[in-house]
């Protein structure tokens, strides 16, 4: 249990690395799922294209949505986007940065699926076997064959057990040709994705780094603030429940309580320890000791978050008063200038 607890603490402390690892695992799972997936083409002209393109498109969409579902920051992004402005403005650039970072992670598994599918060629063969021009692989006996019958015959190329037109078309040559087209599309897809990623990495330093650092900093701040707020609420709920239970048992008198809590002699050390524990529990309540007050605190946190100003004047009003940043900086400069005294250093050399 200790090892599991240490592992969970490590994953919580390194959430970004954990999410990257989850994305890599999803990518490997998508490749493994495709290799274990039994591809069965319907071999009908009206259904081949829908089935082949569906296998190529629908699983990547599912992996993409799953990448957003397992990302905890999606709830943080939605909450930040939908919250009332209150006394803290919302920065659209920070929201865009958070959404782009989540999108990049969520796209890893779909890209792997599409690349593996195109390199394998089964879905491409099923989708385009009936519509691809295979006239160079036909024999002379196809001249008397109607066009609809030829399309139906080409649709059965992926199903070698069903195909019966070996005298009309070379099925092996047609299969290799369509697979080559699929692999060519796969390499083009990989080159486009790689080139796009390279351009994003290379062009980013050309823009203002200060704006990028600002958006990155405040996106981390929003995530950490949400996490610390949940931890604080959890500690407060635990302390609140402990105090309520203690008061409940202290208010009950009778034989049941006497049987449950036998009288014990406590020394001075035990009394001091109990007093310290009670003091720490009281401190964790942070002055909020009623249900109505706690509901008000939670509602105010949602509807009107405190401004991002931790100056003394803002703390005096519990975060509900804006302090003048210019005057505060002037006072800080004057105080630091008054404290500075000239110091002379003499060398013995």
Automatic annotation (TrEMBL):
Keywords: Ion channel, Ion transport, Membrane, Transmembrane, Transmembrane helix, Transport. It comes from the Eukaryota. GO terms for biological process: ATP export. The chain crosses the membrane at residues 21-37, 49-74, 176-199. Residues 332-341 have a biased composition (Basic and acidic residues). InterPro entries: CALHM (IPR029569). The keyword Membrane applies. Its main location: membrane. It is found in: Membrane. It is a multi-pass membrane protein. GO terms for molecular function: monoatomic cation channel activity. The keyword Transmembrane applies. GO terms for cellular component: plasma membrane. Residues 315-341 are annotated as: Disordered. Belongs to the CALHM family. PANTHER family: CALCIUM HOMEOSTASIS MODULATOR PROTEIN (PTHR32261), CALCIUM HOMEOSTASIS MODULATOR PROTEIN 1 (PTHR32261:SF2). This is Calcium homeostasis modulator protein 1. The lineage of its organism: Eukaryota, Metazoa, Chordata, Craniata, Vertebrata.
């Amino acid at each position: 249990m200790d090892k599991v607890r240490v592992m969970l603490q490590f994953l919580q402390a390194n959430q970004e690395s954990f999410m990257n690892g989850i994305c890599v695992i999803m990518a490997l799972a998508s490749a493994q799922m495709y290799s274990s997936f039994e591809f069965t083409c319907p071999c009908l002209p009206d259904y081949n294209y829908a089935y082949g393109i569906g296998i190529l498109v629908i699983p990547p969409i599912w992996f993409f949505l799953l990448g957003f579902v397992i990302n905890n920051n999606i709830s943080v992004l939605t909450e930040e986007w939908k919250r009332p402005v209150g006394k803290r403005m919302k920065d659209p650039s920070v929201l865009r940065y958070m959404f782009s970072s989540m999108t990049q992670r969520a796209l890893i598994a779909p890209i792997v699926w599409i690349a593996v599918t195109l390199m394998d060629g089964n879905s491409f063969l099923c989708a385009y076997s009936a519509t691809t021009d295979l006239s160079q692989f036909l024999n002379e006996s196809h001249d008397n064959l109607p066009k609809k019958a030829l399309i139906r015959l080409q649709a059965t190329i992926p199903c070698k057990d069903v195909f019966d037109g070996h005298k009309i078309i070379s099925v092996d040559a047609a299969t290799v040709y369509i697979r080559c087209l699929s692999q060519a599309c796969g390499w083009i897809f990989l080159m486009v994705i790689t080139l796009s990623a390279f351009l994003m990495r290379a062009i980013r330093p050309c823009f203002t780094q200060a704006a990028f650092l600002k958006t990155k900093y405040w996106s981390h701040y929003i995530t950490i603030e949400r996490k610390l707020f949940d931890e604080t609420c959890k500690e407060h709920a635990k302390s609140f429940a402990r105090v309520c239970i203690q008061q409940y048992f202290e208010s009950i008198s009778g034989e049941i309580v006497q049987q449950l809590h036998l009288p014990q002699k406590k020394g001075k050390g035990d009394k001091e320890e109990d007093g310290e524990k009670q003091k720490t529990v009281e401190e964790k309540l942070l002055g909020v000791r009623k249900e109505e007050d706690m509901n008000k605190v939670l509602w105010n946190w949602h509807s009107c978050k405190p401004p991002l100003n931790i100056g003394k004047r803002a703390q005096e009003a519990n975060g509900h008063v804006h302090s003048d940043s210019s005057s505060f900086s002037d006072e800080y400069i004057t105080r630091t200038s008054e404290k500075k005294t000239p110091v002379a250093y003499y060398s013995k050399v």
